[in-house]
Design brief:
Layout lengths: L22 E5 L7 E6 L4 H9 L2 E8 L2 E9 L5 E9 L20 E8 L4 E9 L2 H16 L5 H8 L3 H5 L5 E2 L3
Parallel strand pairs: 2-6
Antiparallel strand pairs: 1-2, 3-4, 3-8, 4-5, 6-7
Length: 178
Amino acid sequence: MENLVKLAVGQPYARVFNHNEEGAIAELLRSNSNTLIIAIPDLDHHEVKALKKGKLTCGFLYKNGAILFIWQFCDAKGRPVLTLDSPFDCRTVPDLALHDITTTESRLAVDIHVIDTAKNQVKALRSMTMPPELTLEFMSAVQDQLASSKNGEMQWQEWIQLDPTALFSQVKKYQMGT
């Protein structure tokens, strides 16, 4: 039986992050979970509130074997608070679980863990779902990525040079559901 990890707001997070791991980390298509980890030092109250309760819009880019998610968290008035990017490569997921999308209404559920890396403390937990169209497009891109002979590294390096807000303007946007 797997070791269960208890998560609670205000408690330490089970994983310690290096400074190069900060930002959004998409740990999707795992055998037991789909998790978006937001790992940022010294989160302020406004940021935590947007991450915990605000509207989340996302999209992704796919090119040359590379997938890059762009996540935008907004406040209660719909103003962007944080826009983050996260590369995703299904070929590096050790326990890859390709979800069986049986209908055009299938949705991928994603747990969001918000971590203040300066204190290694859980600041917020929430669950959301990808809308059906995003789920289908993402799973299609995953299939393409699996079949691609390109490792995507050059494409990710090109994207990472750009500000996530600029990248967000390039993606088809989807509002995540609760």
